[in-house]
Specification:
The complex is a heterodimer of chains A (185) and B (364).
Chain A (H helix, E strand, L loop, with lengths): L2 H15 L4 H8 L3 H13 L4 H18 L3 H5 L2 H7 L5 H16 L1 H16 L6 E4 L10 E4 L4 H13 L1 H11 L10
Antiparallel strand pairs in A: 1-2
Helix pairs in contact in A: 1-2, 1-3, 4-7, 6-7, 8-10
Chain B lengths: L6 E5 L6 H9 L6 E4 L15 H5 L2 E5 L6 E3 L13 E3 L2 E2 L4 E2 L4 H4 L6 E4 L4 H12 L5 E4 L10 H4 L1 H10 L4 E7 L5 H4 L7 E6 L3 H7 E2 L4 H13 L3 E9 L5 H15 L5 E8 L1 E2 L1 H10 L10 E3 L5 E3 L1 H18 L4 E4 L4 H8 L6 H10 L1
Parallel strand pairs in B: 1-2, 1-3, 3-8, 5-9, 9-10, 10-11, 11-13, 13-14, 14-18
Antiparallel strand pairs in B: 4-5, 6-8, 7-12, 15-17, 16-17
Chain lengths: 185, 364
């Protein structure tokens, strides 16, 4: 049996065992040989669940299109190989892989989210105050949650908020697009 | 004729219409024509067609419109800072094929390219509107469910529209297009009542996504010609696609535009980021799986559409707005389908009411 046929058999076996919808199987088998083989090896090595495979597959396809590279090339990158060849549990590495693919798929979003997270951390807010940024920075709405137990606690948290007012304003402006992405568009 | 057609279907009730006669007279001889009882049968999705929407663009059906021609802009919503635009639906679907086009979802159940033979009934609707609100001015466009000028060399509809609006000071006609089919326009005097607007995109978006349209350079040349013929002109940077390098490319596009047309001769420039409902995104990805413009850093926004994440989107708007203002501080600029909050961030002021913005744009 040729390598290609063996890989395709492995793909079909994986798809049958995991009840992968036909539409995804058809797309998988339509990939270039190296891409579909790498994908099945990844699915087997990380013992991906069906939903994880679908998510990873979609992210990989979109990264490949955005960067004009093959899926095999993406999965060969050092940061990805580190996860694939890592020593942790398969479910842990599967989760880590999908997170890594999201970082690659949304590079500027990730940089902006990291910047905002660093800005929030730099405020050194007390435990009763939480800055809630919009999911995926999809809007400019920044929420401040205060969780107090008693009047004195509340007053103390409000005072703490007042001390970081300028920093909070900067975070709200960053979330709305004022700065933080210079020279990156 | 810039676009090719595989066939024309003419509904019996429209056979003797002015529109049908014009189309038949101007049609290349190789395009077959058939006469049908009910044109609506040819506007529905073809059975077993892999791409009904794309196939719908290949055949033109001339039929009678059964519903009103005039409606509020379908993009309007209380959650957006809108421009008070009214839409005349004189045709549906479009021979061009932009990867991001909302019609891929909006017309999924009715994809056949259709033009309405009884379009002069729209003038009656406009007269009723004028009688109801005699003190108001209205900005009315035809480019929402179809390009305003695609096939104008066949239909000649633009001539009738420009003449009708030319005699009415309370109405402004906006023809919206990505073509350079302007020969009918430049032959008549718009009497200052018609504005022609072009959607403009950088070459990279045009090459990747705007299939069968005129190139951005051709659109700018066409705009200059209609300006010289007495029309007002405006431009839509919409959708703005935030690929890496987009800011540089959009700024260059604005430079090219201002090199060809002085900013003080431009009525307005609108901006709008790429936005796609999940259904549209799926349809677009299915039809154009290899278009990188459709896989930007888009996230599900509060309005249920995929949009470029907020900081990147507003930064891009702000950069373009600043460049436009630098060229001419009086040049009207507005955002399409964005919230008042985004409007405030980009322009530093509260968004005007739709009626006020509409009135300003009508006079621009």
């Amino acid at each position: 049996m040729s390598v290609i046929a063996a890989d395709d058999d492995a793909i079909r076996r994986w798809a049958t065992a995991r009840h992968l919808p036909d539409a995804h199987l058809v797309r998988w088998l339509a990939l270039a040989q190296a891409d579909r083989a790498t994908l099945v090896h990844m699915a087997e090595a990380l013992r991906l669940r069906t939903g994880q495979l679908v998510t990873a597959f979609e992210l990989l396809e979109e990264i490949a299109l955005r960067e004009r590279v093959s899926i095999e090339a993406i999965l060969s990158r050092t940061e990805v190989r580190r996860i694939l060849d890592g020593a942790g549990s398969a479910p842990g590495r599967a989760h880590e892989l999908i997170e890594m693919l999201r970082v690659i798929r949304f590079p500027r979003l990730r940089r902006m989210a990291d910047l905002l997270a660093a800005e929030v951390a730099a405020l050194r807010l007390p435990g009763g105050i939480k800055v809630v940024l919009p999911k995926d920075l999809s809007s400019d709405e920044v929420k401040i949650e205060i969780c107090a137990r008693g009047g004195a606690d509340l007053q103390s948290l409000i005072d703490a908020l007042a001390r970081v007012q300028a920093g909070l304003g900067r975070i709200a402006d960053l979330a709305g697009g004022a700065g933080g992405l210079e020279d990156e568009i | 004729m810039r676009f090719s057609l595989d066939a024309i279907h003419i509904e019996g009730s429209a056979r003797t219409s002015v529109l049908a006669r014009r189309v038949v007279a101007a049609l290349p001889p190789q395009v077959p024509i058939d006469y049908v009882t009910d044109g609506r049968e040819f506007t529905r999705p073809a059975a077993n067609a892999g791409d009904s929407f794309g196939m719908g663009k290949r055949e033109m059906t001339i039929l009678r419109r059964r519903s009103p021609f005039l409606m509020a802009c379908p993009a309007g919503s209380s959650e957006f800072a809108c421009c008070g635009y009214l839409v005349l639906t004189l045709a549906s679907n479009c021979p061009m094929d932009c990867g991001y086009c909302f019609l891929q979802e909006y017309l999924a159940d009715n994809p056949g390219f259709q033009i309405y033979a009884n379009y002069s009934d729209a003038f009656e609707e406009l007269e009723r509107l004028r009688r109801k609100s005699p003190a108001r001015g209205f900005r009315v466009g035809t480019g929402e469910l179809a390009d305003s000028l695609a096939f104008d060399s066949l239909t000649g509809i633009s001539r009738d529209l420009v003449e009708y609006f030319g005699d009415r000071e309370d109405l402004t006609l906006e023809l919206k297009t990505k073509t350079d089919e302007i020969e009918n326009l430049v032959a008549i005097d718009p009497k200052g009542r018609t504005l022609v607007s072009w959607t403009l995109s950088p070459d990279r978006v045009f090459r990747s996504t705007e299939h069968r349209t005129a190139s951005p350079a051709e659109r700018i040349v066409a705009a200059r010609r209609v300006l010289e013929a007495g029309y007002r002109v405006a431009f839509h940077l919409d959708p703005i696609i935030a690929y890496e390098g987009a800011e540089r490319d959009y700024l260059e596009l604005i430079e090219n535009l201002f090199d060809a047309i002085a900013p003080d001769r431009i009525g307005f420039i609108s901006m709008g980021g790429l936005r796609m409902t999940p259904g549209l995104k799926a349809a677009a990805r299915r039809r154009f799986p290899n278009d990188p413009m459709l896989v930007g850093e888009d996230v599900l926004a509060e309005d249920g559409r995929y949009r470029t994440f907020m900081p990147l989107r507003t930064k891009l708007y702000a950069a373009l707005s600043a460049r436009i203002k630098q060229a001419d501080a009086k040049l009207q600029t507005y955002l399409c389908m964005e919230s008042p909050s985004v409007h405030r961030r980009v322009f530093g002021e509260t968004a005007p009411l739709p009626s006020a913005l509409g009135a300003r744009l009508a006079q621009s």
